[in-house]
Please model this.
Amino acid sequence: MVIAVDFDGTIVTHEYPRIGREIPFAIDTLKRIQKDFQAILVLWTVREGKELTEAIEYCRERGLEFYAANANYPEETEKDNQPRKLKADLFIDDRNLGGLPDWGVIYQMIASGDYFKPAPTEIKSEYPPKKKGFMQSLLGG
Ligand SMILES: [Mg+2]
Model:
C-alpha cells in the first residue's frame, strides 16, 4: 500500500516556509503505519529545494524515512517527475474534504481497512442528562 502524506498542516502545523510544531502523534503514527502495515510512505508536498530538504531532515531526525519525496519512486528524474497524479492508494492531507482526522483515528482507519469510510464523528455526551437519575429523583433535584 502506497500512502502519500502531506507535510505542512498534516505532520506539522502550517507555518510554511518555516517548519511548524509537530501535530500530536503524527510522526509516531506514521512510523507505526510503516511498520505494522508495511506501507510505503511518499512525502507529497508543495515544498521544493531547501524547504523540501528541511522537511525530510525534520522527519529523519525523528526516525521517519520516506520512500520518496514528491515522486512515485526514489529514482524518478526531473523529466519523469510530471505525474498526472501520484500513484498512491491513500492520501493523508489537511486539505482533504472533511479535514484531517486525529492521527489516532487515521491509524484506526488504516488498521480497519475502512479507508474510505468517514472518520467517526465525536459523540457528544448529553450534559446535564435529560433523564433524572435515581438519586436525583429521591432528592428532588
Ligand atoms: Mg497541507
In short: The chain has one domain: 2-139. The chain has a mean pLDDT of 87.
